[in-house]
Amino acid sequence: MAGGVFAVDSTPDAAVNIVGKLTLSIIITCIVAASSGLLFGYDIGISGGVTTMVPFLQKFFPDILRKAAGAEVNMYCVYDSQTLTLFTSSLYLAGLVSSLAASKVTAWYGRRNVIIIGGALFIAGGAINGGSENIPMLILGRVFLGFGVGFTNQAAPLYLSEIAPPKWRGAFSTGFQFFLGVGVVTAGCINYGTAEHTWGWRLSLGLAVVPAIVMTIGSFLISDTPNSLVERGKLEQAKKALRKIRGSSVDIEPELEELIKSIELAKSVNQEPFKTILKREYRPHLVMAFAIPFFQQLTGINIVAFYSPNLFHSVGLGRDGALISAIVLGSVSLVSNVISAGIVDRFGRRFLFITGGIMMFVCLVSEITT
Name one GO cellular component term (predicted). Predict the structure, then answer.
């Protein structure tokens, strides 16, 4: 992929010094791109808390309240509603569908433009959810949000990896995950503050529009990555983008030439990328590319994050206690993101994989044995 063009071992010494410089423009553009993670995190965290709010359940899912009122009903069975499941899972379903097309769209139209498209979808989804009067509106809003997730999750991490200097690429790439954690914690705090109000669920769902608007406007003000511009044959724009992020006093010609050569080489080698990746020598890379995210999802961490207020409520905590516990869970995750961002470029990705895997294994075993 084009994200590997700025690798240190393939860049001339002069270009390495240029690319290693951290400028204000790089920081601003990366914050704008990474903020799409905030929207994803917010949408993950907000729905679980909203589905514990009495006014929300009274309007859309009164059967759940009737089950909760029955002393003979186990709390684990209270949320046994296919419609409620559709409301929460429709975001992921739409994200899955849109992600299938997002890769091609990102290559054709550029990383920045796809982030803008995702921002517009987030705005539409948040507005529809905040103004919902029936279940179809709720689900439609979640579908729009899911489409936004599918597009921005494809474009934003790629944008970050391509725009960041090699020395800081690991830290900048974790920016998406950091903002995701910020979104989860922010959603938990807003849910806690609005839970007792009849209009609280509308505010919680509708506030997703605010960061979506900020991100969309910010995306118009930043340039696309030089990689993307060169890939699409826009060399003059690529030159302007490089000059903007490296600084006007820096000679960007060596880096631009190296970038053009690298992309031309990648295109000549990968005429049939899917056939290439299936070759024997690339099979380990293919297996790990699927295995790492696949088994990460199988740990169930996203389900815990998504349904944490419901889970805490089911094990006996009150509604306020469940919402506070969700905030604590999100805060721990956020602190972990900050720590990993600070050490990833020093110790490497493999170290974090091993450390995280060991910690997850120990925690899961301790839960089973207690």
Answer: membrane
